[in-house]
Amino acid sequence: MKLNNVYRVGDSRACSIGISEDKIADSADEPSSAMQLMFDKALIFPGLINSHDHLDFNLFPQLGDRFYTNYTEWGAYLHQNYQQQIAEVMQVPLCLRTEWGIYKNLLAGVTTVINHGDRLPVKNPPITVYDNGQSLHSVQFEKKWKTKLNHLFKKKIPVVIHTGEGTDKAAADEIDRLISWNLLNRELIGIHGVAMTPRQARRFKALVWCPQSNYYLLNDTAAIGELKQHTSILFGTDSTLTAGWNIWEHLRQAQETGLLNDEELLASLTAAPANAWGLPTGVIAPGYDADLVVARIKDETHIPGSFFKLNPADILLVLHKGDIRLFDESLYSQLSEVPKNNFIKINVGGAYKYVYGNLPGLVSQIRQYYPGARFPVNEPVVN
Question: Side-chain half-sphere of 135: how many Cα atoms within 13 Å?
């Protein structure tokens, strides 16, 4: 496959990107018979890496009606005041909730999502679901966290943990407790870190920044402008319990803070998490996984800035390891070699897309258990 007349983020010159099997190809290695896709000035970028989600929690609406000092206060308030809403969602089988969480990411151009929590029942997902780290919820909510943190046979894999999710002294102290009990000096990847200091940040391999979730719960977020000098910053959405489904809205909110510049923000979704999680993706270069997204250019006068103006409706193509997982209806005639029976037409934000699998069937199944479930897609669509 060859993608023609596309613009890399930050480059004002059009180019072509070749794909051979599941990898980005060197131009010399591209087969002459490759399928050619022609775009009318489109943006191309590595598939996004969402470094923090709870895939099975994305049927929830945002829950909470005020700001909290830390996640434990929010958790207690949640279970006291939203028992009915929680029960309605949790009656949906875990496998269905998880599958929707995967689609939530795919529709927005995410090709790798790091799920936090127990390993989920995922079979042949259309994108990468990374769960190779050791997930600990938090110092407060993870039973026997000290023992699990210092598990001798897991010392070579990173520990992924919520930490410092709050604005009070308890949140800051929690980070120090975690650091002091890391007796094996394991690699720590923290999540949220709203209370984190530069001194503490030096003890972490990376910090996952989830600004929309932080502002919703705490009306504050981590001091990323300072912390980025001491640890790698990755980007995450969290689940719809505390944030919207559309990662592009998260990015625009992050951009408005000015805590990362545009180049750093893009890296927090691509090269930085690929390096932190040890993934052969996040870069458009020969030999890397062909996880790629092509989208409409929203502002031809400023192509680099178009990236941050995108929404799921603007996505034209999503490739995961060279396989098409989503394409815009405008590409239908060019994809004559692609078996269309593997895709179903849906409407996202007023734009028609063909998505891999049976998303309308999934929605129908979920609504059998949870009739009030809301989705950002209109389905089904008759061809």
Answer: 15
